[in-house]
Queue: 4 jobs
Job 1
Amino acid sequence: MDIITVKTRPFGDQRPGTSGLRKKVKVFQQPNYLENFVQSIFDALDDYRGQTLVLGGDGRYFNRPALQTILRLAAANGVGRVLVGQGGILSTPAASCVIRKYGACGGIILSASHNPGGPEADFGIKFNAANGGPAPEKTTQAIYRNSLEISRYRTAGGGEIDIDRLGAARVGDMAVEVIDAVTDYADMMQQLFDFELMRPLLSSGRLSLCFDAMNAVTGPYAREILLRRLGAPAASVIRDQPLEDFGGAHPDPNLAHAGDLVARMHSDAAPDLGAASDGDGDRNMILGNGFYVTPSDSLAVMAANAQLLPGYAAGLAGVARSMPTSRAVDRVAGELGIPCFETPTGWKFFGNLLDAGKITLCGEESFGTGSDHVREKDGLWAVLFWLNLLAVRGESVAQVVRAHWRRFGRNYYTRHDYEGLDTGAAAALMDALKAGLPQLAGQRFAAGEILQADDFSYRDPVDGSTSSGQGIRIMLAGEARIVLRLSGTGTSGATLRVYIEKLESDPALQGQDPQVALQDLIALADNIAGIGRHTGRSAPSVIT
Ligand code: VG1
Ligand code: CO
């Protein structure tokens, strides 16, 4: 094989964020930019030579050329075999499934997830380890250090590999297998859920759904699973063609970006379940007829009902949630008598807990839920979980959630995002907030008394590693809480996320609009953090 060593220089900005390296496509298109990062990944690993690597992405613009570049680098660096999703496609959970199923040493996933795509938009790359999950912090830090010192990368000569045709090929000594991107994942879903129960209900229309693939990667997965294997009518899946620019839309399944679906769920023609997934298929939004389920509630409902579903009939070992996620699931864990872990934002922090068998279900407020079946959050899995649950209980989404609130209390919840902020102004806001933390405890406001205020730090109970500076927590009486942190996935300016929550145990008071129920806390967040003053904004860009 023709191995070429190319001299290069560090870029200095290749620090992975919450979920891999995300930049504008134009940044990735600079000569050597992608190559430097991929070489830095190989240099951070010690056991990949001769082994299997999984490669795929969400199909966004630049996916295809990036994939060819990575194949050449992989061959020159001594990878034994690469499994590539057909057409370069693998949803993030499917990639996790394939890594685990074929004993790969890891995988490279090309995605910027919920960020928009296209020549002027975003691209991303992340490395997943042999357990199928996002590389832990010690690996991402090693990748970053390598990227600051890199002076050469290795690549191979040769032409392009045809990634659209299933089958085997070679790049020099390295085998390339183009695999069906959907089958392994669909088979796994069929193991976890009761397809026999759901199929007659879905095919006869007794249980109806609308799944919005948002022109992103889940289209082919949804067609195979929901339409072909479960027999739902064709119109049950919308925007099911993966497009390089997601049709110009923002592939982020929330109330702001899945507007058509939300409108349909509030119309006379609303099906029983509405759902959407994001660019790379790991997020989910769940809606009922005229009803929105917050992701935090969705996790809690899943935990409370898991035993009704075949894949989880044995019960849950434990649960985990990211710190900003509402504490609704904590209440379920308390009642079930199982442990509940609080981790920093980002799926990589769940990996050790899942591997150690300490948890079965986990989730984040950012439309992410998952289980120990893979090591990523999983959008379609969540949709199937809900469908199976509705089929078993024979109730509507709203009935299931309201009954849950009556039993466990309702954790009113909202997240306010301030996007595209001046980076300096956002940093100044956080610095001032941190400086004022010691004075907050004991102060009384209309929203209640502040009991505790800190900067969240996490010690991993499995490997003892610590991660500090993971977000400001302000805890108030009455199980109310305000959390503030800066996003680690954006590609321009800074995004401030403000998470607000309050418990309401009285069923008579559980039917309010969260923005109303939480208004005192929303005002207090602005008061304490000086959001308007620092950012010049009078309202958030997105409310979820
Ligand atoms: C966001 C979410 C976080 C999620 C991450 C990756 O990160 O808040 O919960 O794990 O996106 O999701 P941040 O740092 O911007 O808040 V995905 O679907 O974009 O890979
Ligand atoms: Co995603």
Note: The chain has three domains: 3-179, 184-408, 410-543.
Job 2
Amino acid sequence: MRKKIVAGNWKLNNDKHETAQLIVALLSDPIPSDVRVMIAPAFTHLVQAKTLTEGTALEVIAQNMNAATSGAYTGEISARMLNSIGINQVILGHSERRAYYNETDLSLKEKVVTALEHDMEIIFCFGEELDQRKAEKHFEVVKSQLEIALFDLEPASWSKIILAYEPVWAIGTGETASPEQAQEIHAYIRKIIAEKYDNTLAESVSILYGGSVKPGNAASIFSQTDVDGGLIGGAALNANDFKAIFQST
Ligand code: PGA
């Protein structure tokens, strides 16, 4: 049985004070035991977030990392640095990283390997753009993304992979995939994993949906058979909204 997961991607938001305030507000009620709840604050606030969440079920994760473990890469953060402050989970391949920082499935494959070498759990993001959806190419796009970035992994590595299907046209736009659209493509994703590996592995992988999830639509999306939770952007910045979302699982 896959446990639901709700992760908040805070992106380039919240200073030190706002980060602390939001964490305190999220912890004012117990985190339900049937869902894993994660937050991804900025790198600069990860240590503070770890301290504030110590002994609670709220998991603190990173938004990104470099494929290299050390070296001359000014401004970058490594898996080793994250490990050293107790961060063992990372989001990779978010569509904003792909669009603004030229990340590709091939370069993400390297990051995935490095993260796994550092025993990190990965939320791997992928999904089609609007023109690809309109041209009904979304199935082949997600298949190619997964094939390039993940399908060379050994079966055992998949215990560290959480997938986040995020149609680019739904991120930050207010436009959400319908629950049926989400279910259709999540089922397809599980099918191609089963074809590449096997059914048992495919059934064990958590597949999150991301893109304009809000308190009003979370329950209907999360109730789909192959949707195991969500990656939340804008609505994760408001404690009440984020709580309502993870309480909808
Ligand atoms: P959104 O972002 O919820 O603001 O659409 C989702 C994401 O970027 O993961």
Note: The chain has a mean pLDDT of 97.
Job 3
Amino acid sequence: MSATATTPLHEQYSLRAPREYGNYIDGEWVKSSSGQTFENRNPANSDDLIGTFQESNSDDTAQAVDAAQRAFEGWRLTPAPKRGELIYRAAEILKRDKEKIAREMTREMGKVLDETKGDVQEAIDLAYLMAGEGRRLHGVTTPSELPNKFNMCVRMPLGVAGLITPWNFPIAIPAWKSMPALVAGNTIVIKPASLTPLSVVMLAEALAEAGLPKGVFNVVTGGGREVGEPLIKNPHTKVISFTGSTEVGRDISIACAPTFKRLHLEMGGKNVIMVMDDADVDLAVDGALWGAFGTAGQRCTAASRLVVHKKVYQQFVDKLVGRTKKLKVGFGLDRVDMGPNISAGQVETVKKYVKIGRDEGATCVAGGNELRDDAYAKGHFHEPTVFADVKPDMRIAQEEIFGPVTAVIPCEDLEDAIRIGNGVRYGLSSSIYTRDVNKAFVAMRDMYTGIFYVNAPTIGAETHLPFGGTKETGNGHREAGVAGIDVFTEWKSCYIDYSGSLQRAQIDTEEI
Ligand code: UN1
């Protein structure tokens, strides 16, 4: 096919033709009772309509929760290995369709194809891990203090899980939340980010093809107020898992407090790469570029602070600036290094922070501008941007920007780097570049973050380890890994007395 400027993008790149997508409730694709839909457009090219999605309301949400509630009993009693087998099948389907799904995701979310392939791979990895959990879901057996008595702890599912997911990892994060919830026997209502609903539709399609019973996984698209809030407040949702901003997370926390609803929050980050004077500076620059500008900086793990030892500071800044200026920005299905920002609003936020950085007296040494000409005119593009001479208390070094902006901060030594590194309200990810094993271990011990790397950037978590952070990044829970199952289960301690007589714990033990 010879592509011309007038050939619609979905034909040029063999993507899905635009159409109306329904909610997925009780195993059916259905329209919202609102009769309204919203458009989903490519952030790199607003001419490219991906599809229209249901502008759902509280009635649709209630219907989905009812369906999930009805399906719960059957799913809870389905043997866990069987649940795991269905998840395994979904993993195989996602693997088969990885490239196709990734292409749609790049078109929907903007990040480059390698990265959306990675995003799908995270979903696949976690699905395989949780499929295996179907034959583990280990509890604990432990001796009793009394004779002829057996003690154990088993996991119970909670019921309907309400999942509210972000646009930056549009299939990985929904999978991180869904797969552990499902294998443990919960049913799901998910509200995807309105900027990336197709990715969750594709996840639902994979689960449906795998043979998940109807009502076990439901998707309702629409706004936070119209869908998210009723989902959180519905008495039948027994657990809420949310990834997004700290501000919204706080509101959700308050909404869940009156009924003590189980809540998992995964929120902001202001992650740091510390570069010591003995580091391999080129390696650190590689890591900084990937950490800061991967996903156009739109990761909660993004390396938005680079704390660099004064002895290598200038060398590091020069190399970083040279490399940053060479990054190619564009549509993620073309040969580029970095895609667009997700929306016009996000570009405005980036521009606001670039201005704040300049006003605060930091030096903008690379980028600093929105891209608007020619190929960029119909998208939401901003140059990858580096600020140097940043002081730790400046707003660009304290607040999450969620865009392609990073701040280089000089430091005196390891102790100073750790103090600066920990000196923010978030605690997701941190990293150190050093060749000195002693320094690496001190940093590993003293950085108060949920994730820590040595000689690697702040991004790149693997799905079988717990993911999450301290302070205002989270509320003490973790997702992914086996820790993810803790969010979606409750412990039940069971005591089985086969002595045939009354044995009083703590009392009859004296006679033994
Ligand atoms: C996120 O930014 O919300 O470690 C998730 C990483 C990815 C996940 C990021 N595996 O950067």
Note: The CA atoms of residues 477 and 486 lie 8 Å apart.
Job 4
Amino acid sequence: MTTRLTLLAAACALTLSACGGSSAPDTPDAAPSAAAPAPTGAPAAAPAPDTAPPAMAPAAAPAAMAPAADGGTPANGKPAAEVSDCGTTIEGTDAMQYSVSSIAVPASCKDFKITLKHTGKLPAAAMGHDVVISKAADMEAVDADGRAAGAEAGYVKAGDARVVAHTKLIGGGETTSMTFPVDKIKDGGPYVFFCSFPGHSALMKGSITVQ
Ligand code: CO
């Protein structure tokens, strides 16, 4: 009796090993074909970091984060500006970001002062920041005209009537400010503030309201 059971067990084992043996060749075949695309993709991506200038590195980081930010809240998860004495200080970084997503101007203020502090290290030519205020509906056109006006113009077209107010363009370590009449943004909104350095308004923009 014991011998028969042992033989049955041995037969089962042979069957299992036969099955395992037949499936085994499939796995090695599949593995190389699946892995094949990876080596071709890797060399193409590898040269990019080597050839990219240092200034591109900070810009690449926010670009990679953009889908997540766009998919999230319109405020990009940043806080509202802290306002006191009819003014506020906001920051701009080497990662192409403002520190705030919105500015609420008290209706009781006659004039309002915005101070921009560039907390980065990159020069204005590579990572310049300013604050330009316009109607939200005008932002794209103001931005495009500013880009066309060029660096000498601080990327703001001279005499642009759609521009409510703007600071000068600054680089890392610099601070600038502007003061404008609150009446200018009380009607006809919504208004926005944005950076007119080419490409920056995609990430560097926020809403400015009178409350
Ligand atoms: Co900027």
Note: The chain has seven helices and nine strands.
